[in-house]
Amino acid sequence: MMEVSAVDPKLGGIFYSLDQERQDKPTFTRNQDCIQCHVSGRSLGVPGHFVRSLETDGSGDMISGTDTSEVDQCTPIADRWGGWYVTGQSGAQTHLGNLVGVTAFERHKTEPTLRDNLTELSQFIDPQKYLRPHSDIVALMVLEHQTHMHNYITRLNYETRIMMSMYGHIRYLKSQEDAFLRYLLFTEETPLTAPLVGDPHTSKTSWPRRNAIRKDAPCATST
């Protein structure tokens, strides 16, 4: 079964499944099972999406009993990309990308830069089978910010409609609006010690070094 998701401007994340058996007329079916995980604190309590970092075995499945983390712009680079392929330059900043299997994760504890700063992925996969031979580090940073940002937009949309229905105004949403803007403007992004540079074949951009404006503030959350 293939699972597909879209974003509705009012409802947020909408989830579908597509049967992989041959059919005369394949049909996408709304899948309500997905919201058991996709309507939770991970998605700010609304139908949405999230990016995770976790330890995986040799087949790519999560290693039972290990920690997982939901990733957004406040997550330290050292905790990101477990279970992901990553290409591009992160300097001396370590991450969990490109680690496959228990042995690799154990080795990473003593060799933290084990598989950082890779320029290609041929040691893991046959790149010719894919549209692009890279998994760009800058694109991953954009994905993580965008995913949580979509959840913020959905949450604020829900709360705005509720407030307008109950009170006819949105003056009670100031704290939610402030949290939304802090996240939108990267004010609490995890500090970087060096720019993250994408693959020159696919990207001419880099993720600039920035220090968090409010280092004492937690990652913005809507209440």
Secondary structure elements and pairings:
Blueprint (H helix, E strand, L loop, with lengths): L1 E7 L3 E7 L9 E3 L4 H4 L12 E4 L13 E4 L30 H9 L26 H31 L6 H11 L11 E2 L8 E2 L16
Antiparallel strand pairs: 1-2, 2-3, 4-5, 6-7
Describe this protein's structure.
The protein is of the alpha+beta class and 223 residues long. Among the domains are: 1-38, no CATH class; 137-207, no CATH class. 25% of the residues lie in helices and 13% in strands. It has helices at residues 35-38, 102-110, 137-167, 174-184; strands at 2-8, 12-18, 28-30, 51-54, 68-71, 196-197, 206-207. A three-stranded antiparallel β-sheet has the order 1-2-3. Helix 3 packs antiparallel against helix 4.
How far apart lie the N and C ends?
36 Å
What average pLDDT do the residues reach? Answer: 88
Q: pLDDT under 50 segments (min length 5)?
A: 213-218
Largest sheet: number of strands, sense, barrel closure: 3 strands, antiparallel
